[in-house]
Amino acid sequence: MKTRIHFSSFFKSIFALAVVCSLGNQAQAQQTILLDNIIARVGSHIILRSELELQQAQAVSQGYPATTELRCNILQSMIQNKVLLTRAEVDSVVVEQAQVDGELEQRLQYMIAQIGGPEKLESYFNKPMSQIREDLRKSMRENLTIRKMEREISGKIKVTPKEVRQFFNQIPQDSLPYYSTEVEVGQIVKIAQIGNAQKQAARKQLEDIRKRIVAGEDFAALAKQYSQDPASAAEGGNLGFFKRRELVPEYEAAALKLKPGEMSPVIESMFGFHLIQLIEVRGEEYNSRHILIKPATAQVDMQATAQALDSIKGLIQKDSLTFAKAAKDFSDDMATKGNGGMIALGGSPTTYLPVDQLDPSIFFVIDTMQVGSISAPLPYRTEDGKEAMRILYLKSKSAPHQANLKDDYQKIAAAALSNKRNKAIAEWFEKNKNTVFVDVAPDFQACNLDE
User: Fold this and answer.
1) What is the pLDDT of residues 52-105, one digit of tens each?
2) Taking every annotated instance into account, which residue ranges of this chain make up the domain PpiC (predicted)?
3) Residue (of 334, 438, 347, 343) closest to 150 by Cα position
4) At residue 381, does pLDDT exceed 80?
5) What is the pLDDT of residues 11-45, one digit of tens each?
6) Beta carbons within 8 Å of 99's beta carbon, 6+ residues apart
7) Which of 42, 227, 260, 376 is positioned for an S-S bond with 291, CB 3.0–4.6 A?
8) Across 156-178, average pLDDT
9) DSSP string of 97-129?
């Protein structure tokens, strides 16, 4: 049923979410109850006041003034995203499970590394790792679906050189950005390969753990002690329920051969070696726990990886292939290999990087390099914790300057394209918002969201 955005008596009732915070040491604790009410319903989705306040706080921390206009603009954007999500469901726009799982694992491992371990992450969110994983999976799927829906709407939009010039000329002269020193940096990453000796050592360690379980020790206790999957180790190896084909084939095949309570032999997957115990089967879903042991990366493997990168570097220097072609053919970094190996910040379409925003591990290397040169192989750890090596390529370096079409065409074109795509999405929203039920709390009437 079509309906305009409106303010109804639905929000005269407050839906309270009790969040209990425990403070103090040992037996002393103080409990604080925070009320978090729903401020908008979009189709079958809701927006909480806390979500709006979090986004507003993030915007203020980035220099935006804490005004009513900012608050309304953020809410409008959140509603637009929920409308996109709802229409994606209607139009059967879906993302692949493998993409969700891949993004989820990278994000979770990054969060664990940043905060200092799975236990600290659980303490921060006051949730077990299994619940953090499920919450993150839901938000990850929603975000990926929204982005895919946006690509369906605006992905084919392009900008011409004429449009780029028009966009630039509309910017007041006194509003042109001033760019500090910027660089273009490429990388070719090779993940260290695991030798047979390391694999056999990992397998033997897991075989010994299996013998201890057969002898009567508790699977979950040993998972907490030994498993190298930090997300599940804290839960005694419990992964929670998964549908068929959601986990890697080797794991699923071994798990579904078991009866509840049974334990598998040691099996190998792309993640390492697993010992699996089936907990429960529920229709098309199954719950299992595992102990994961990853083969150690030895120094000899790092040396072999460095030698491989040295060979690639030599081919580039002899003009046998370009850096971009080498990155596409040989790099193990999925985020950059399709972009000629060039590094971008935060998903930005431009490859020009302000030097004050560079990772120190990159800055201190390229600071001594000449434009066009390639570094020696350097130790590197991927976002998901794998040992690797990489070479860095300094493609360009610009002096501080005010924005102009000659030096900054790529950035200006990216901004013009983003502006054009945002307009297309906004126009789509105006045409389609009445196809989705949108209900907003009375205290947001001043935002004029129905206009």
Assistant:
1) 988 888 888 888 888 989 989 999 899 999 999 999 988 888 888 878 887 888
2) 180-280, 283-393
3) 347
4) yes
5) 333 222 222 222 223 223 333 333 458 888 998 89
6) 144
7) 227
8) 92
9) HHHHHHHHHHHHHHHHHHHTSHHHHHHHHTS-H
CA dist 173 and 195 (Å) reads: 60
Closest CA to 422 of 166, 167, 154: 154
Strand (E) or helix (H) holding 22: strand 20-23
**CA-atom Rg of the chain in angstroms:** 26
Q: Which residue has the tokens 């229409």?
A: 87
Closest by CA to 117, choosing from 243, 234, 207, is 234
CB atoms within 10 A of CB 409: 14
Residue of 248, 242, 253 lying closest to 288 (CA atoms): 242
* Domains identified in the chain and CATH numbers: 178-194+298-402 (3.10.50.40), 196-293 (3.10.50.40)
Burial (CB < 10 A; 0-12, 13-18, 19+), residue 335, is middle
Distance of CA 334 to the CA centre of its chain: 13
- pLDDT tens profile 242-287: 988 888 889 999 999 999 999 999 999 988 899 999 999 998 899 9
In sequence order, the 6+-apart residues with CB closer than 8 A to the CB of 441 are 7, 11, 37, 38, 39, 40
What residue ranges in 283-352 does DSSP mark as E strands? 285-293
| pLDDT for 214 | 95
Residue 383 φ/ψ, nearest 5 degrees: -60, -30
- Mean pLDDT over 412-428 rounds to 91
441-to-81, 430, 449 alpha-carbon distances in Å: 17, 20, 11
Helix%, strand%, coil% for the chain, nearest 5: 50, 20, 30
Taking a C-beta distance cutoff of 8 angstroms, is the pair 110, 335 a contact?
no
pLDDT for residue 323: 96
Say if residues 422 and 428 touch (Cβ distance below 8 Å). no
- Verdict on whether the full-model pTM lies above 0.85: no
The token pair that represents 413 in the structure block: 């074109």
CA 312, 318, 319, 324: dihedral to nearest 10 degrees?
20
Q: Rounded to the nearest 5 degrees, what angle is found at the Cα of 254, between the Cα atoms of 250 and 258?
A: 165
AA identity, residue 154: S
pLDDT of 319 > 70? The answer is yes
The dihedral sign for the CA sequence 111, 361, 63, 409: negative
